[in-house]
Amino acid sequence: MTMDREKEREIELESAMYTNCLLLGLDPSIIGLGASNGTPRVGLFRHSNPKLGEQLLYFILSSLRGPVQSARDFDRVWPIFDSAQSRDFRKVVQGIITELEAQGALPRSNSRVSSLATCCGPRFVELLWQLSLHALRESHRRNFAADVASNPLPAPLTDVAFSHAATLLPVTKVMHLYKLFV
């Protein structure tokens, strides 16, 4: 894969991840969206960005696991006030990710720990995208059970799925626009 294609893929994944988060109900101001700016700015994870990374991880995993389980999961580690609490938060996140990998909901990866530690780079963006996609699928399954029963969701995310981000991006954008007007 050429360097340009790698950068393009990272931009696609990050943009799709932000769209997924907005569809899940993320406050747009967290990712820098205001009244005049309707498109999330990409590249926020080219350099270490632990504050935003932790906010997005907390939001996505809370959306995925629901308020009761999230309260248990993140008790004493959220909100984050110091570096020790940040370390503990990341351990909880790593445990949840390991659980999701064991269930087959996320592809396995050996680089998760380092990716979580830095909150930057393409691997971290890909992790956020994978988590946001899974959370969006589960949210859809919970909120539209009748639709899912008559028209099943596609197979869960696998190692091949990330290569289809360019295909998914227009779909998530349409869903976002639909949500704005409904």
From TrEMBL:
Pfam families: HAUS6_N. One of its GO terms (cellular component) is HAUS complex. It comes from the Eukaryota. One of its GO terms (molecular function) is microtubule binding. Residues 17-161 form the HAUS augmin-like complex subunit 6 N-terminal domain. One of its GO terms (biological process) is spindle assembly. This is HAUS augmin-like complex subunit 6 N-terminal domain-containing protein.
